[in-house]
Structure to design on (509 residues):
């Protein structure tokens, strides 16, 4: 009889008006990596929150067995005591504390139970940092290291609790390719050391590479589990299980006419807001045409987001200089409000802190940037707001109990759809999309791509920033390549490829 380190039997979890999980079953063998895949809102994160004690025993139905023993976790501490650790997509680190302080926060190394033993804290942190390949000083503040290294700090934190089952929710969503590969290799190393992992990810190429088993969840039900070496595991096969049908083309076809140059940025320079001697954006010039989707590609840290935010009402940077022209006329965007009034929209990559009001409902988040469109003499027409909310909920297939549901209670992908809806409703002439499909499943990506194409066909001008090169190549008519704050290449769709983009970056060095 095969030994399972974890079993979840008939797990059912309900929220007001929504059955998030319905009789879900999951089995995990020791020293295996299991991938959990499904569309946004399918129930993946909910299932892992049940397992880790975020949703305590009594708030769900069904049984959890660890090493054959039934467990009733009332909180995260109890699941951690059984060797279960979860790393959420939004990292639970305190930026102003050091690496060592974050690693043992809530798990302090003490003498006589009251005094923190800093020598032991430092020694253990150094030992575990070596294990995961984190080359930083232990006193470095978390805010001073990149996202890839912050993920490693979270893993070190889990190892400090003697983890046996490590759960990672979208661990590579915000990482560049190099950091992603390092993290995946680390999971394989941890597997060899006896640590079992569960990974939630929409990056199918990554999970097919490292997973022993892939469990598909759809609409709160476990659909199937595919086993490496037994089943044929391909990205198309996984997608069919996720969406219930074959997805023959990842990028919808677009029939549109590209017009004249409509939006230009010339000789754009931006300095670091914390160091006005450090130039982040260096003499950047680009132009966008009507009905055109233009990609802005580059490595993490190239300055793509900084450029976009500085253009969008100078919401980033100091000593900003350069010229912006719209339809041949110079415009001055000193504030975000100026940008919105000028018909410019920007969908941020950081939906949690900058894209949404998480405590407010769906309809208000959608209409927030365009309240004048649903107001009569400064009074909001609530019936019109409801109508707009319902329209965009249906159009982008936002999974929710109603438009009155709080945005913070939705999955990350559905939150992203709300951000997208907000700016489409503002009816901009120029739309800057910063990582528009980050953390979104393939089915939802297709829906957003279709909306982007629809906007281009209407003559809208679109600048698309993405870390996913296939997305840039599949969606864009032209691509600008940015490296270290400079434009180092401009490629049309025929000559753009992963190789040509990387060649532009490497040659600039």
């Amino acid at each position: 009889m095969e030994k399972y380190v974890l079993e979840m039997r008939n797990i059912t979890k309900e929220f007001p008006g929504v059955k998030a999980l319905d009789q879900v079953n999951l089995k995990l063998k020791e020293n295996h990596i299991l991938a959990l895949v499904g569309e946004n809102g399918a129930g993946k994160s909910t299932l892992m929150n049940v397992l880790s004690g975020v949703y305590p025993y009594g708030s769900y139905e069904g049984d959890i067995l660890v090493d054959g023993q039934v467990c009733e976790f009332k909180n995260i501490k109890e699941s951690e005591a059984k060797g279960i650790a979860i790393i959420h997509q939004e990292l639970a680190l305190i930026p102003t504390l050091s690496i060592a302080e974050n690693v043992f926060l809530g798990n302090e190394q003490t003498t006589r139970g009251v005094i923190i033993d800093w020598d032991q804290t430092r020694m253990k942190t150094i030992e575990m940092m070596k294990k995961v390949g984190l080359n930083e000083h232990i006193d470095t503040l978390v805010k001073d290291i990149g996202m890839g290294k912050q993920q490693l700090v979270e893993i070190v934190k889990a190892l400090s609790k003697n983890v046996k089952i490590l759960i990672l929710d979208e661990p590579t969503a915000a990482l560049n390719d190099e950091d992603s590969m390092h993290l995946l290799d680390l999971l394989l190393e941890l597997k060899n050391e006896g640590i079992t992992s569960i990974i939630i990810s929409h990056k199918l190429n990554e999970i097919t590479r490292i997973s022993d088993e892939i469990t598909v969840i759809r609409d709160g039900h476990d659909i199937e589990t595919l086993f490496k070496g037994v089943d044929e595991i391909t990205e198309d096969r996984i997608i069919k299980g996720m969406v219930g049908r074959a997805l023959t083309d990842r990028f919808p076809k677009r029939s549109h006419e590209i017009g004249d140059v409509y939006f230009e940025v010339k000789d754009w320079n931006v300095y670091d807001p914390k160091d006005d001697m450090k130039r982040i954006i260096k003499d950047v010039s680009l132009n966008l045409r009507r009905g055109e989707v233009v990609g802005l590609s580059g490595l993490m840290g190239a300055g793509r987001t900084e450029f976009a935010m500085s253009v969008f009402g100078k919401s980033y940077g100091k000593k900003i200089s350069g010229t912006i022209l719209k339809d041949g006329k110079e415009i001055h965007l000193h504030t975000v409000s100026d940008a919105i009034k000028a018909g410019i929209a920007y969908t941020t990559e950081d939906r949690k802190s900058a894209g949404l009001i998480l405590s407010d409902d769906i309809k208000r988040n959608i209409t927030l940037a365009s309240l004048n469109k649903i107001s009569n003499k400064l009074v909001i027409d609530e019936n019109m707001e409801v109508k707009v909310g319902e329209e965009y909920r249906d159009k982008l297939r936002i999974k929710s109990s109603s438009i009155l549901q709080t945005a913070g209670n939705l999955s990350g992908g559905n939150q992203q759809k709300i951000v997208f809806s907000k700016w489409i409703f503002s009816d901009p002439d120029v739309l800057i999309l910063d990582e528009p499909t980050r953390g979104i499943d393939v089915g939802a990506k297709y829906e957003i791509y279709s909306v982007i194409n629809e906007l281009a066909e209407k003559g809208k001008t679109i600048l698309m920033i993405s870390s996913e090169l296939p997305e840039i190549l599949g969606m864009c008519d032209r691509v600008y390549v940015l490296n270290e704050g400079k434009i180092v290449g401009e490629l049309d769709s025929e000559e753009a490829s992963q190789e040509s983009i990387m060649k532009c970056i490497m040659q600039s060095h």
Summary: The CA atoms of residues 87 and 154 lie 7 Å apart.
